[in-house]
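FORM 12-B: Structure-to-Sequence Request
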């Protein structure tokens, strides 16, 4: 009896007999449902990518970014088919602290590149951003022209992931973009954490954006990042800032001379620009072109890409081994016990580690 009463009052049956509102469109609903069901096959995506279809490219990247293990073989098929069509590009990494003007610069630089006949893909690596697509919305307003550009493709970062995961996806995304005919790949990274190192190991040319301060240019800049840079560009060289930017240029030039020579044979160049006023952009392109001319002639270009491929193979093995180890249910249990034992000095950390490893490999 009590049961019956409950049933009739249930919120679940409350809508019974109430018609759908007039604004409801049955055909729209059917469209949504079929779209959801329709997952393009690997073949469809490959054909689309090779034709340069940006929609197919986007969808393929979504598959690559998926964490669903059921997609692994599809991802592998797509990458495998695209690989022979990849590699015909130049890959440029761009870094700089938040607010330095990376997005504005990429808008100016990217539109310059498409105006001289290049096809540009812009990717971002930002493992710190957990709100997916948050920053790209801001970026899309800063890249107004480039977003609309037929010869440009902008893709936000895969987010909420480990750096290793993001890096792998970015590497695979580069291959897809190249197979789709994009000949200039720009990879933006935030100027914090380890993401620069990851990006540095997937690009041919690394550009560090800076702004001038009050003569303290070199302060707070990580030595490692300066050492990685093939060019330092002092942005916002406009208005009252022009003189300061020139000073900064001299200072960076001097500082760069203190670093050991690069194995590429390239001498890093410092220049100024205004992303906002779109000045100095052609000089930057000239520097980059000179670099590629040099490293293609002395074969450093090929050597570096080969090294990078080997590096990423080893990285992937490391990542997989680690994640397999730490996700093993038996290890999860043993790890907790051993953490306690080690914390309370009942067991040495080394012995605990060796025991854990041997129970994993047994
Ligand atoms: N005066 C001047 N302002 C600029 C220039 N480039 C960028 N800005 C301004 O600097 C601010 C930050 O520019 P963004 O392009 O968003 O910088 P960002 O490095 O992409 O920043 P994050 O995405 O937050 O890391 C914006 O208000 C831009 O309008 C420039 O060349 N001159
Ligand atoms: Mg930005």
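FORM 12-B RESPONSE
SEQUENCE OUT:
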């Amino acid at each position: 009896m009590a049961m019956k009463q409950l049933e009739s009052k249930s919120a679940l049956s409350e809508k019974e007999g109430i018609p759908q509102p007039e604004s409801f469109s049955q055909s729209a609903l059917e469209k949504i449902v079929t779209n959801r069901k329709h997952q393009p096959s690997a073949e469809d995506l490959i054909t689309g990518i090779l034709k340069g279809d940006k929609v197919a490219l986007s969808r393929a990247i979504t598959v690559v970014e998926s964490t669903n293990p059921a997609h692994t073989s599809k991802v592998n098929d797509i990458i495998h088919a695209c690989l022979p069509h990849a590699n015909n590009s130049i890959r440029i990494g761009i870094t700089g602290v938040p607010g330095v003007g990376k997005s504005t610069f990429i808008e100016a630089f990217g539109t310059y590149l498409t105006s001289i006949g290049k096809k540009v893909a812009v990717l971002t690596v930002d493992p710190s951003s957990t709100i997916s697509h948050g920053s790209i919305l801001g970026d899309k307003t800063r890249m107004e022209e480039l977003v609309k550009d037929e010869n440009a493709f902008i893709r936000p970062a895969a987010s909420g992931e480990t750096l290793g995961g993001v890096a792998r996806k970015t590497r695979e995304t580069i291959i897809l973009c190249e197979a789709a005919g994009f000949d200039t790949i720009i990879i933006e990274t935030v100027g914090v954490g380890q993401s620069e190192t990851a990006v540095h190991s997937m690009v041919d040319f690394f550009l560090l954006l800076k702004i001038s301060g009050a003569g303290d240019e070199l302060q707070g800049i990580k030595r490692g990042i300066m050492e990685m840079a093939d060019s330092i560009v002092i942005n916002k060289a406009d208005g009252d800032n022009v003189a300061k930017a020139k000073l900064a240029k001299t200072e960076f030039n001097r500082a760069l001379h203190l670093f050991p020579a690069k194995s590429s044979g390239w001498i890093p160049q410092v220049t100024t620009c205004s992303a906002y006023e779109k000045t100095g952009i052609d000089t930057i392109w000239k520097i980059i072109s000179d670099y590629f001319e040099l490293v293609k002639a002395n074969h450093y270009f090929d050597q570096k890409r080969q090294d990078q491929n080997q590096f990423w193979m080893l990285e992937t093995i490391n990542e997989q081994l680690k994640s397999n180890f730490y996700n093993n249910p038996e290890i999860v249990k043993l790890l907790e016990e051993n953490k306690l034992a080690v914390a309370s000095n009942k067991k040495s950390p080394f012995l605990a580690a060796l025991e854990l490893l041997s129970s994993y490999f047994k």
